[in-house]
Amino acid sequence: MPKRTKNASGEMGVGVKNDEQSWWASPSNVASHFGTSGVAVATATGITHPLDVLKVRLQMQLVGQRGPLTGMGQTFVQVVKKEGPRALYLGLTPALTRSVVYGGLRLGLYEPSKNLCELAFESTNIFMKIASGVVSGAFATLLTNPMEVVKVRLQMNRNVHTGAIGELQKIAAKEGVTALWKGVGPAMARAGALTASQMATYDEFKRVLLKWTPLEEGFYLHLA
Fold it and tell me: In the 8-state DSSP scheme, what is residue 53?
């Protein structure tokens, strides 16, 4: 974690290099970052999953046809009325599984990627942080795309009773294993851009706040 240190002139600064390198060398901290990141993303996924179901239903309405589109409110009412409230949680199991792995990798790999950039280029400027976010986000999506495919299939079909594992096996058997990576290109591009924009801006604002405000490392700094 970044700590305030005094430089040769006695001014307060932010020393990050030694802490980041010790973080890189500690397996327990790596596991802690991965675990807490995964749990945090999974918690958010569980709370917002109904919105994800509605998003998929809205995106897939009138496929290959022209006609009036239904809004989110009306789609919500239709789903609850015709399929019941449980339909808002279709695909929750693969969504949570993906969240733990994707969230852990996407956020947990950011610091090691940034440290690697520092070792390679002797810099942790904003461009290195953006590059680190792109790499960690894209890599996490590459590994977890099968769960995303299974999740969408389950969200679109309430009559599937085989569960996530059964649907995974069905897709692999009927369409081939490569079908589990459908859409992985734009998904990686989106995740790379998302992670870069989130982590780089978070990192930079945190550095600025540590340097120019009385905030110390802790909850209020992270919240700010």
Answer: H
